[in-house]
Amino acid sequence: MIRASSRSPAAADLRETNRRFYDSLWSGARLVAPQRLNTWPLVQSLLPRCRRRLEVAPGLRPRLPIEGTEFVDISWPALAKLARCGARVVQSEIDALPFPSGTFDLVCALDIIEHIEDDRGALAELCRVAAPGGILLLSIPLYASRWTVFDELVGHRRRYEPEALRALLGQHELLVQQSGAYGMKPRSPRLVRHGMWWLDRHRELAMWWYNHLFMPLGVLFQARLTLVPGMIDLLRVDEIILVCRIAARRELSLPRGAGATNVCD
Predict the structure, then answer these.
(1) Which end of the chain is more exposed for a tag (fewer CB within 10 A), N or C?
(2) What is the pTM of this model?
(3) At what angle do helices 162-171 and 119-129 cross, to 10 degrees?
């Protein structure tokens, strides 16, 4: 069963909430190179067989190499900064990706599915643009009972129960090759509540401190990403990263959406 907070907004409001929050966040942030993030050893291991790459909703923390990767986001501030660093960028929604079916060997979508009202449609779109036999990198927050104000702060729609997660992956014929514990949510509930208080009353100042102190510290002290074959034991995991293989044989559907604007034009 998938459960959401009873305070979660409607789909249109949710998109706008996400857009406002992340536009504000990325406007004052610096790009963090993918080589500095704990996903880089995993990404490096995949690059030799994944020439065509797409990352959806990277913000200013791209996990895939900037050179040679297509980036899609809803946030203009993030896209503009990525473009200035030489990235190929397109503004678009995850449920209407402006690419032909079967285009990419590697599709990365971390910290995004839980933000989308129609998560099944979004996942179907990610699978559509991936080549048969390609790789999909996902991260998923777990357990509705672990919902906190942090989920509301960052614009989550839901957290997933393990059974619902397995059903969602099975529906799209995704084979989990590796998985591991993931995420940068603060462990202290008091720290989260304190951050919410500042964001509610002094948003601009709180964003400055987050971008200039807490985010750099989070990157500096991030835990090493440890992966296991198949699905990790989910009992003590708040968020999971998944390395999924796309079904080798499947019918490639037409794009769900049309058109997008290239910020580099």
Answers:
(1) C
(2) 0.78
(3) 40
